[in-house]
Amino acid sequence: MATLWGGRFTKSTDQEVFDFNASISFDKRLFSWDIAGSVAHVHMLGKCGILTIEEVTAIEEGLQSILNDVNEGKLEITSKYEDVHSFVEANLIDRIGEVGKKLHTGRSRNDQVALDMKLYTRDEIDGVAELLKELEHTLLTIIKNNTETYMPGFTHLQKAQPVTLAHYFSAYMEMFLRDSDRLADIRKRMNYSPLGAGALAGTTYPLDREMVAKELGFTAATSNSMDSVSDRDYLIEFLSALSVIMMHLSRFSEEIIIWNSNEYRFVEIDDAFSTGSSIMPQKKNPDIAELVRGKTGRVYGDLMGLLTTMKSLPLAYNKDMQEDKEGAFDAIDTVKSCLHLFDGMLKTIKFRKEVMEKSAMMGFTNATDAADYLVKKGVAFRDAHGIIGTLVLTCIDKNCSIEDLSIEELKKISPVFEEDVYEAISLKTCVEKRLTKGAPGTDAINEAIRRYEALLS
After folding, report:
1. Would you state the pLDDT for residue 9?
2. SS3 category, 274
3. For the segment 59-104, what is each residue's pLDDT rounded down to a tens digit?
């Protein structure tokens, strides 16, 4: 057992207690950030005259050698150590001797782990943001290529009014852009360094906390030492944002799953992102979309776990907070893999444009526009609504669309119909005349595209 404490104890920790208490199995992920924080800390100790230049140089070179050896596979982080911090410090002392014991001057594991977790989380926010941006670029390409791909829009999963694929995917673009904004907001709010807060009450050493904060890319040092070591708000916010990202991916996955069904046939998922059945040779299953949908609950669980852990903790640090890591690591890994694979699926998906357009026509998505046509001819809207309802029943009996009826058949239902009705209720007209901001019309969607290009540039 390699620990950073023990002087006050008269016998060794029980092995089961040590194992239960240890975090090395999962916090070894924080290794490189622990090294970075230690290097910045020792630089500050030298600048403040707490360590000599020679001591700073020896410690920094020792830390760098540990980093290199771990990265090159020459040194393994094992369960011999309680946590990643004891691993680094014990190996440092082994390499450079007594001077290695001075690394921890003016520092507690409480502010050390708080720093490591913030450095790690900040980088992971940036990583998720990059994956989101890649997905947004993919969506933008699809949107630009499908401004005239007509399809039904839905309410209650019932065909409602005609839209375009560009407009449909623009809705998801808006969701993911909000996700990007949330990540940027969280990153800005959490970017304050806790190092120097000590165990909970600062330190008597003349530390320059702002120097460390600046070297590590933080906006400034945190303002209250007790809050510094007990704050996990930023992690809860991040997991909350990840949960919203997964909710958006899950909704999008549901669309793809439905569209991929034999009943819809709107899309064909590439073979590389599908699987088959062990017994039914005809099957081509949308497994990636289904797994993304399924893993959403997993990320929700990680968020709820952390919220529950934190809900009744008194100030300041409590060992319960060690439970922040595994759930956070799991949520981050899950979201990153889901974003990457979902983007790959979208990049290779094929859209059956003719099927989409026919579905919009046979679904009577232009019925509202047909009613509006009658209103413009002087028919009261309530009467027009009834006329078009009768018209739809006729089409259902004939298994045809409104456009398939002859002008004579239309006039039998209402003499107000004229030849110009066909142009008025064409999918192109129905979409094009919707020009309000955010609508599917060409001018409106082109304005959205310009905005997306500016945001993603």
Report:
1. 61
2. coil
3. 999 999 999 999 999 999 999 999 999 999 999 999 999 999 999 9
What CATH number does the domain containing 27 carry?
1.10.275.10
**Residue tagged active-site, from 12, 25, 261, 277:** 277
**237 lies in a domain?**
yes
CA dihedral 205, 64, 25, 117 (to 10 degrees): 50
Judge if 244 and 349 occupy the same domain.
yes
CA torsion through residues 258, 264, 265, 267, sign: negative
Checking if the pLDDT of 134 tops 90, the result is yes
Q: Could you give the residue ranges of the DSSP H alpha helices within 83-108?
A: 84-96
One-letter-per-residue 3-state SS of 119-181: HHHHHHHHHHHHHHHHHHHHHHHHHHCCCCCEEEEEECCEEEEEEEHHHHHHHHHHHHHHHHH
Q: Which residues form the domain of 438?
A: 358-456
Residues 412 and 263 in one domain: no
DSSP 50-65: SS-HHHHHHHHHHHHH
Please determine, for residue 4, whether its predicted confidence score (pLDDT) is greater than 80: no
**Side chain identity, residue 425:** I
Mean pLDDT, to the nearest integer, of 130-134?
Answer: 98
123 shares a domain with 268: yes
Annotated catalytic residue 156:
yes
Assign residue 264 the CATH number of its domain: 1.20.200.10
Cα–Cα dist 182/303, whole Å: 16
The pLDDT, as a whole number, for residue 2 is 58
Contact 86, 155 (CB under 8 A): no
* Residues 118 and 244 placed together within one structural domain of the fold: yes
Number of domains, the chain: 3
- Final residue of a domain: which of 326, 357, 388? 357
pLDDT of residue 328: 98
266, 359 contact by CB (below 8 A): yes
State yes or no: pLDDT of 10 exceeds 80.
Answer: no
Q: What is the mean pLDDT of the chain?
A: 95
CA separation for the pair 74, 62 (Å, rounded): 15
Q: How many CA atoms lie within 13 A of 134 on its CB side?
A: 17
* CATH number of the domain that residue 439 is part of: 1.10.40.30
Catalytic choice (85, 156, 243, 340) = 156
Residue percentage of the chain with pLDDT more than 70: 98
